[in-house]
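ARCHIVE RECORD
Type: protein–small molecule complex
Small molecule: manganese (III) ion
Source of inputs: curated submission
Record status: active
Notes field left blank by submitter.
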Amino acid sequence: MAYELPELPYPYDALEPYIDEETMRLHHAKHHGTYVANLNNALKRHPEADAGNVDVLIAELDSVPEDIRTVVRNNGGGHANHSMFWQLLAPNSGAGDEDPGEDLAEAVTRGFGSLESLKERFTAAAAPGALFGSGWCWLIVNPDRSLSIETTANQDSPLMEGKTPVMGLDVWEHAYYLKYRNRRLEYINVFWNVVNWREVASRYEAGHP
Ligand code: MN3
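STRUCTURE (tokenized, with ligand):
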């Protein structure tokens, strides 16, 4: 069965003024849509390699036939990363929806001292000086329930290394260039206004698959 582009859980203009409608439209319909199309095309050559679940597929890249492995890595990674990313965003979440829930809040305090300090560390890790070029910045839940911040290049996912992301930020230029031009740091800072902390908390509760 072919993979499908998931619908956004909100309208394209819902994240204005932080993330603009045109960026969301292109990012979802064109960029994410292309990852899905490329993934399906590659899997036509090896339908038996399809795990039926993109998260499982990219977690087991070694068992994907070599002639499509890189395409699956880039486009399966792109499909998995963006499917998660849309869920992690929510309109108006900066206006009082910041409560990450008790368990996640405890882990944040234990690992970073405070939510503010987590945001500072995450922002620094995602900034161009630390993450050069295209990639993602992640908050990971470790097997001992602690949290860590990690980055990946291109469309690589922490799932490819057996790690469980609970939050992620796309810092490819296509995610911000129309509105923020080369000012990635500004985009990272406004991201905090649209984080869906309830979704992050529920992913933290779920922990490892
Ligand atoms: Mn993207």
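CURATOR ANNOTATION: The chain is about 45% helix and 10% strand.
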